[in-house]
Batch of 3 targets.
Target 1
Amino acid sequence: MIERTDRVGSFTLPGTSMTVNRMGYGAMQLAGRDGNKLVWGPPGDVDGAIAVLREAVTSGVNHIDTADFYGPHVTNQIIRKALSPYPDDLVIVTKVSARRGEDGSWIPAFSREELIAAVHDNLRNLGLDALDVVNLRSMFSIHEPAEGSIEAPMTVLAELQQKGLVRHIGLSNVTPAQIAQARRIAPIVCVQNQYNLVCRADDALIADLAHDGIAYVPFFPLGGFTPFQSDTLSEVAARLGATPMQVALAWLLQRSPNILVIPGTSSVEHLRENLQASRLQVPSEVIADLDSIGGGPV
Ligand SMILES: NC(=O)c1ccc[n+]([C@@H]2O[C@H](COP(=O)([O-])OP(=O)(O)OC[C@H]3O[C@@H](n4cnc5c(N)ncnc54)[C@H](OP(=O)(O)O)[C@@H]3O)[C@@H](O)[C@H]2O)c1
């Protein structure tokens, strides 16, 4: 059953004074109209998007994930409208290294000029003097981590950090080799890759990052644009008196203490449902059932 108290607590990004609640919020779903999987243009209901963000923060979320290429620019502008002046403890994590084509496509934007422009776009649209955390999003393959040197773009981000425009650096869509390469250039506070009940390629990486105190922030925690539909998940949820999405999030939060979740939603109702997952204990006897959804135990 869902308990009354938040069980999952907080996490301090390594080498920083930034402590975030492990239950965060991903803002990508705020761009585009209902059902628009392109993350393109303004939302159908701007006031509704603002309401989601404000309710997230008043409910204790102090970690919001975004990018200036959501919309493009739209999501950051809505975050600013909804939340600026920002609460002192709010950590906004953005990402760079992609831009959008006129057709909504996602285009690598890894050059020095493009990275500098992206940081300034984020600063302007969020209304900030410095970005809390910037994830360098690898684009050697758009949909999954793929090998390739990230030395040059990491060096640019490290310079921007030295100039004070970027407080901390994270990585996204990366391989262990790229993480190691980046850490030789600047400290890395978080890694954001696709990971969820079904997509378990990073099981070993999560343990390695936990060992080094680095946050792991799974994107598509609910399965992404088409959330999970699994009989096993539904059966477990029914047994626990919870919803399938709550179980998927609670499983992630129990999976490792360095996991921070950023479920995305454009709906206040779904937001409320998702936030309740931090109060849900998934008993050990059903973890094996949930592991079977992804093909086996860790
Ligand atoms: N680094 C990267 O490459 C990358 C890639 C993708 C995403 N991200 C980040 O990760 C965050 C999370 O990923 P995501 O938003 O794409 O996917 P997600 O969190 O896995 O799922 C979002 C989808 O689930 C639906 N949903 C949310 N809560 C629900 C609920 N309680 N019941 C039923 N449906 C629900 C949403 O629709 P409704 O709006 O109708 O609730 C939306 O369609 C993003 O917001 C973004 O910040 C990063």
Target 2
Amino acid sequence: MGNFCCSKDDDSTEIDTTTPITSQSIDHIRSRLAVLLKNVPSSWLGTTYPNDGRYVGRQRFLDEMLPLLNGNDEIKEENLAQFFPEDYVRLGSPLSTLLEMLRALEKGYSPSHVFCFASNALPVISVLLTATSTVYIYGAGEMKDDARVAMLKQVFKCDFKYTAGEPVEGEKGAIVLQISASVPDKKDLSPYVDAVASGDFLYIVNSKKVLLKDLKDAKGKMVRESIHTIRKRFGGAIPTPDALSLLKGEELPAKPNLDAFNTHLKELAGCATSQVAPLVTTTGLASLIACNLAALELGDHNVDILMASTAYGGSSQQTEILSKVSGQITKHTFGIQGKDDHVLEKITEALAAMKSGPRKPLTCVLIEYPTNPDMKDCDLTGLEAVLTDYKTSTGSRVVLCLDTTFSPISTPLKGLFTETPVMVWNSLSKSVSGGFTTGGSLVVNENKFAQQWLTRSHAYADLLDVHSKNCQLKILADNHMNTETRIENAHQNAVKAFRHLEAKVKTVSGQDMKVNFVTQAQLDKHVRPATFSFNLPPPAAIQSDNKAKAAFAQKFVDHLVTSYPKGIKPCVSFGQENTLVYVTVPATSTQGVISEEIKAKQAVGGIQLVRFSFPPRMDLSAFTAALDATLLKFYSPSAAN
Ligand SMILES: Cc1ncc(COP(=O)(O)O)c(C=O)c1O
């Protein structure tokens, strides 16, 4: 059929040399795509995808889909369900990747070189952020927005020049970025253009300059982030419902009424009277970037950020990227990996150490409440006293960002924080949406400075164009009201499962294992996660085998999943409104970007943490039967492991 190519290996095909396809073959692909869209598996529509062999990566996914669409083999739902480009929708979904592929083929670009964003600003910003030399921007009348340029130049320190006329060759290494309302065919592009940004899409021509993949050194240390990494840390791909509509040529939905949703978000944070409207963005991390940029502005572009070394990997990496590009943030961390490490104690120690360093105009403390992945508490009253003390003794303005994603119903602002500006940050991708879309929200307390902080966060969300899309708002408006029930029911399932697990491990291994779960004190404060983590004791057969112990948590998870695939999904995330238990080893999934040294400290006896997240409805006895059988397999006296 078509005479186009799709690179087998991005690294070996740096320059896009795709041969354009004929109009006949694109018509064939479009008609095959229409058939495919009638066979979309339901597993393609969620927010998390299996973290096993079906997670084949973006390139392999394209390599499977392209011949399928280009050929004539029957398109079967069960076959499609074997392939996922990513493990989480923020990184790209099967449908957003197909949309990228279609757009690429229509205009003669390589399918792996086209990225869509749930933002019309991030395609350009991602190029500027990943460039190491001057970017010459052509055709950018509407980009000459003062506030956006100020953000790009003063905060992101981007080096770019607007240029008129036909693109010409820049100095050696310079990047030529063309901005076009309609995308030119690749064959009609000036030979000097390295990438084209058009609306929510970025078309990369020269991937030596505009990176498809992160550049790392021999030790795996990040040298330069790729477009894909900026997209996943600042925003996300076009949401699945919109990708589906665009593939079908249908209209995108209108904005739903959000009055009840906005009120509910404030109530969940414990501050129904908060004056500034909540910020609601395309993903949780999009809220964090808006919040961090606003903090930077209010802190005279000179800010300390303190967070746990084992915080969610995305929060850590985003802060590092922002710190690296701006040179205006110093990231400090505190470790809470030890079983007996207390969050407040560790923050107090870290702030005490920071007192003797260069004090910044603003200090932002970011805490997961409760923490990821071991559900640790923080005494918020004690914390306010510690923050006030830091402010008094250093003169730095102290602000607090509370990530309540694990228990969004915990109302942390209720009756607390009269002095301290507090931002309650929540990834709506979990319990609030039920896992049906991604999203993020920011709500502040009544403190005047906090309100200014949120107002400026709204402005940065505008500049990044990361406000939630209407299709996402529709899902949120339809699902938020069940958040409390969903969380309470899921929490009850988690309680029953953790009691069962602790008892069974004792029986099969003879060893005591304490699951990391909320304490009575946390329950009294309305903290109700449905997630817990645990370090299994090393089975006798591998006691002295370090390699086997390092691999054990994943091996346990893999076996558990295969023993009950109907009720267990090997994947990240939590808060799901379904009947599946999500299981993962955070060290290799959600904490993928955290250093090995830091993660090693959360292993016990050489065995890494396993994390279980529970749904509101499930067959608990079938789950515990699978759990028991898996424990027996690894801990019975005859187990070889
Ligand atoms: C604790 C926590 N906070 C924030 C986030 C970021 O949310 P999102 O995936 O919606 O960007 C995550 C994502 O998994 C998380 O686990």
Target 3
Amino acid sequence: MYKKKYSVLLIIMFRILIILLVLLIVFLIFTISFNKNSNSNSNSNSNSNSNSNSNSNSNSNSVENMKNVKLDSIRTTRNPFNYILEFYRGAPYKGYYIENLKKVEKECLNYLKRDSFSNLIGKTIVIDFDDTIGWTKPYKPIQPEVEKHRIYGDVIHFKPIKPIVNLVKNAIKLGYHIIVITARGPHMLYQTMTNCHRFGIYPDKIFTSCFYGQNQMFKQIMRENLSRMTLNDAKNMTSNQLLNYKGKKDSIYNINIVMTVGDRWCDVKGVIGMLGVKLPEPSDMNSYFYYNGEIRVIE
Ligand SMILES: [Mg+2]
């Protein structure tokens, strides 16, 4: 009788021991993996910090005085989602993202006010729409309510990104023309237009994309072709006509793109002699100046 009781007790203790062992193993595995993650995060943070520090040390106030960093060497960081949320918290009204854009606004405005541009003929700014002028919450796109427009039908209105909207408005006061080139499809033309109008921006022209954002070269080709015609010519062209434009007009009234602004590299790079302003996006939350293949972080 006692023997039987004793053996049952032993079996129960043995089972408890096994359960405890399993729990200990699970706990160890969890702590090891957690440490690994936090180490890799802190490493990537320290790397990006040292990169940005090395960039800032060599910065100067002049746009042309950029550090010799080639675009290919920029590493887009895969940021943890909570870091993205922290960066965009309060957007598009306040927070780190908006503070960063205010610095962009200030530097760009100083650049546009330069004496060398004051009497420049055909001076133009090319600008993107989504997450440049209008806020679409890029890390988790929002679907704002559809509104009815008397002429244009269903329209979706986004919130303005104020620092960039202010930059565009001030640029217009300084005599710059504004051309919007968006990767949105042609069916979004009027939506883009009514959004701009609601923000108080009346672009000289809006070009949409027949590639619906699937062609990385689209905007670069459009910018190159714009530089070979006058603003009046451009106003009378469709996106497809401009994209396939082969002519060249030698006129002092040709479009003179001084600056191109957007949140993707395809919005800014590739064309010589104009200042590219690359705004933050979730995969890389820095702003950059890009000029003739060289870049610097805007801090
Ligand atoms: Mg965009």
